[in-house]
């Protein structure tokens, strides 16, 4: 069972996750892939990591944009599992050339 993080812990850890935003009991980020198939491959890689952790994100795919939302529903908020998976998602996105959208594109 994962321990719920408090607001200060979440804010501190999000500083190491560019492009990630807290919204209530969820953290989320959008990554723009170079093309549609790269976005799908990113989702496949994240799905493999998530399955290994038994911690699954909500995923929304819109052409080359992929939005990942994380929350530990069983704990009613954010836990270290969410932060760890966010880091894995960020690393996978970077590896595939996907980036957070430019501020003027959001």
Automatic annotation (TrEMBL):
GO terms for molecular function: 4-alpha-hydroxytetrahydrobiopterin dehydratase activity. The keyword Lyase applies. One of its GO terms (biological process) is tetrahydrobiopterin biosynthetic process. Its EC number is 4.2.1.96. It catalyses: (4aS,6R)-4a-hydroxy-L-erythro-5,6,7,8-tetrahydrobiopterin = (6R)-L-erythro-6,7-dihydrobiopterin + H2O. It comes from the Bacteria. This is Putative pterin-4-alpha-carbinolamine dehydratase. It comes from Intrasporangium oryzae NRRL B-24470.
């Amino acid at each position: 069972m994962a321990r719920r993080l408090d607001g200060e812990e979440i804010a501190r850890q999000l500083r190491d996750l560019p492009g990630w935003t807290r919204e209530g009991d969820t953290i989320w980020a959008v990554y723009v892939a170079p093309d549609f198939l790269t976005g799908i491959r990113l989702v496949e890689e994240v799905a493999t990591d998530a399955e290994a952790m038994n911690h699954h994100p909500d995923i929304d795919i819109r052409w080359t944009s992929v939005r990942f939302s994380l929350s530990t529903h069983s704990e009613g908020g954010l836990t270290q599992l969410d932060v760890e998976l966010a880091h894995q998602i960020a690393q996978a996105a970077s590896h595939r050339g996907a980036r957070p959208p430019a501020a003027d594109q959001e």
